[in-house]
Amino acid sequence: MTRTSRPTLTPSVTIRSLQYRDLDTIDRLIRESCEEAPEGASMVREAGVTVSRWYGLLQFLNWFPNPLRHALSIQVAEAGGKVCGMIQTSPFNRAGTTWRVDRVQAESAVISPDESEGTTTLLSATDLGSLLLRNSFTTILQARTWLLELGVNDDKALALYRHNGFQPVAQITYWSLSAQQIQEVSEREPDLPNLLPVSNADAHLLYQLDNMAMPPLVRQVFDRHPQDFKTSVFGSLVQLITQWVTQTEVVSGYVFEPQRKVAIGHFQIKLSLDGSTPHSAQLTVHPAYTWLYPEVMAQMARVTREFPTQSLQILSADYHPEREAYLERIGAERIAHTLLMSRSVWHKLRESRLIPHLENLPLGDVIPGFQPTRKPVPGRIVLDHSNDSAQRPNSSKGDSASNDSFPNDPDLC
After folding, report:
1. pLDDT tens digit string along 262-303?
2. Is the Cβ–Cβ distance between 234 and 66 less than 8 Å?
3. Residue 140 domain-assigned?
4. Strand 98-106 and strand 145-151: pairing?
5. Residue of 159, 91, 88 lying closest to 125 (CA atoms)
């Protein structure tokens, strides 16, 4: 558990949920945020939803379980009647043990702790960001681990997160393949005889592949389970509506190893139907089958032939040296570098008693029958030899037999 100093809480700063009147300020803060990682190719971040545009629908979806239930999980910091900061969080896995910090944005604010003295205090953006983070840590009790991704050049955000206990987990590199490079890769005939479509029945295979492709620390932080690789009926409906609105299409598949009965490769590519945005892909390959990189890349390149010509974005982590070597060999270009950070949170539970102040209850007055009537006096101790004779049957029989054999012997009397 990482211990950090608690920010100073001031009574003039209020942290509350998002309201309709805050939408203009929230949109401005989001536009000012520095985001280097492409959302479509990220392994942590998801494509954001325009809050001001879909505020009414998102409020309705917040009432029942669905993939967009936490799209409005936004807290704002208000000082002097003005919104000066916001934080957006969402669960990373289905179990809710790992939560993701999607965005923290704050600006300096001038507050007046004591209006009678006429003094003012300047609260920096780092202090407000720390207040927002600490509020999320203490209010979301089911979260044991917090995860985020930020650009390596965002010094202010990096200082904020390091100040609040976040530590680096992995380094992520984003690559881009031009349309010409995709055409060259697609000329290769992929040798994938066991390429299968993805369904909910394959969730356990994808879960095993995901665990094998990550180091233990990242696996512990992600804390994924087979249900994280399943899609509900309502989730599928939401994905279809989202793809229709954003003019995109998702194609996925996995490579099955029949001898070991395991999945050794998986890809998911998000294609742009109108050519306005680059294609993005997520790739997972078993560490023992790195020869699959050229084959799976050729398969994804062939899929893009039926769609408008556009570049392809893909990522690699610092624990994927074979993938980085292959992408460099085919001439892919590095477009962004990000840092994956996490921290653990342990919530101290308050000790409670089943019956408060049990030791102070007047039990002698409530139950008088249990009180002694007189002072106990020790009595005489009587030894019972009946048990001793019962426990020694053989000796009794021997004595009686000897007495019967010599009944009138005077020497025995």
Report:
1. 999 999 999 999 888 899 999 999 999 999 999 999 999 999
2. yes
3. yes
4. parallel
5. 159
State the DSSP code for 291. Answer: T
Residues 127 and 24 in one domain: yes
Whether 142 and 179 share a structural domain: no
Report the amino acid identity of residue 203.
Answer: A
The answer to whether residue 406 is domain-embedded is: no
Q: Which DSSP symbol is given to 43?
A: S
- The CATH number that applies at residue 297 is 3.40.630.30
Q: Same domain, yes or no, for 185 and 144?
A: no
Q: Based on the fold, state whether residues 139 and 224 are members of the same structural domain.
A: no
**289 within domain boundaries:** yes
Characterize 54-93 residue by residue with b for buried, 16 or more Cβ atoms within 10 angstroms of its Cβ, and e for exposed. Answer: bbeebeebeeeebbbebbbbbbbbbbeeebbbbbbbbbbb
Buried b (16+ CB within 10 A) or exposed e, 223-239: bbebebbbeeeeeeebe
Q: In what order do the strands lie in the sheet with 312-317?
A: 13-17, 74-79, 82-91, 98-106, 145-151, 333-344, 167-177, 312-317, 279-285, 262-272, 248-257, 195-196
Number of domains forming the structure of the chain: 2
Q: From CA 320, how far away is CA 77, in angstroms rounded?
A: 40
Task: Tell me the whole-structure pTM to 2 decimals.
Answer: 0.75
Is there a single domain that holds both residue 220 and residue 273?
yes
285 within domain boundaries: yes
The range of the structural domain enclosing residue 199 comes to 172-344
Tally of CB atoms within 10 A around 198:
19
CA-based nearest residue to 177, from 286, 43, 315, 276: 315
Through-space distance between the first and last CA atoms of the chain, rounded to whole angstroms? 87
Q: What are phi and psi of 252, to 5 degrees?
A: -140, 160
User: Tens of pLDDT along 188-240?
Assistant: 999 998 999 999 999 999 999 999 999 999 999 999 999 999 988 888 888 89
The H or E element containing residue 322 is helix 321-329
Q: Tally Cβ neighbours within 10 Å of residue 265.
A: 25
Helices 292-303 and 321-329 sit at what angle, rounded to 10 degrees? 60
**How far apart, in whole angstroms, are the C-alpha atoms of residue 214 and residue 246?**
31
